[in-house]
Amino acid sequence: xxxxxxxxxxxxxxxxxxxxxxxxxxxxxRAVRKRESIILFAFITVILAxxxxxxxxxxxTQQELLKEPEKTTEKTTxxxxxxxxxxxxxxxxxxxxxxxxxxxxxxxxxxEIREAEHEAEITEPEITAPPETEPSFETEAxxxxxxxxxAxxxxxxxxxxxxxxxxxISNSILIPSxxxxxxxxxxxxxxxGIALPQVNDIVIHWVANPGSTALGNWEYFQNLANPExxxxxxxxSSHFIVGLEGEIIQCIPVEEVAYANQPRNYDxxxxxxxxxxxxxxxxxxxxxxxxxxxxxxxxxxxxNADHVIRHHDVSGKDCPKYYVEHPEAWEALRTDITIYIxxxxxxxxEFP
Length: 352
Ligand SMILES: [Zn+2]
Prior knowledge:
The chain is mostly helical. It has two domains: about 20-90; about 90-350, 3-Layer(aba) Sandwich (Lysozyme-like). Helix content is about 40%, strand content about 5%. It has helices at about 10-80, 85-90, 215-225, 285-300, 310-315, 320-325, 325-345, 345-350, and strands spanning about 180, 200-205, 240, 250, 270-275, 310. It has a six-stranded mixed sheet with strand order 1-4-3-5-2-6, with helices on both faces. β3 and β4 (about 250) form a beta hairpin. α4 packs across α7 (about 325-345). The longest helix has about 70 residues, at about 10-80. It is rod-shaped and about 135 Å long. The termini are far apart. Bound molecules: zinc ion. Zinc ion (ZN) binds near residues 205, 311, 317 and 319. Zinc ion binds near residues 311 and 319.
């Protein structure tokens, strides 16, 4: 049996040293583990931060890629504006196309493929078309709103084929100098070259493309002739386009059919009108030109303002949007035409 511990015995000192050494080892071990924990924590933090940064950068890149089409559109609009002056240089001596009968696949109306405001002629009545969906320029979404599928080229035979191409066209009028004649090339998609046998009404539209210029819309119509551009196989055009600065471009001779007023393309004249925003209200300058042009056409054709109608009145379409939503504004516009006519009784001689 061991006796009680005696202090200061060599054996006890040995044990104390041993315990001391053990304690230091434990402390060193703890320190090492603590350092390892810190390093591991720091490493994990760095990895997490890296993951967050990478995912943020990827997201930014995706958003920029999504925005890319919008930028392209803006650039196109700018270049269109730059070309605005060209219109005055382009000769007015373009010969009017021979009037012939061609099949027209369908009769859309707007200036932009994405507006989907076009309408299928013959094969589908316009009133069955879905309402216009108009992606705003302000949204970042790329233009994905495809127009309703246009009728194929091989659409059913057109009913107006009975209109003889030799019809005696009595609706020729003088075109005053404040209208720029810049005719589209004859093509089944925009200017079919079909005789317009009579004019009973004048139909007003909106281009459904805020901020677009008259020339930009002219180019849109012209490009429909190119199948590489006109993927949607759209047919559309208008006799006249009134621009944001009051300029007026005539795209199609008044003796010929334009594709805007389906199903009344064969006894109407069409006027597409530019507008600054999606509200669709014409600015003052544009409005004044619309009044002047409509009044002039009324006098030329022996019509009064009751024969100036909205696209809406032809087909029920939401066009021209502001003047469909504000019937009182539409009535005011018609009244202004009447007033203009009364103040300019000799209008046909005023604008040689
Ligand atoms: Zn319209």
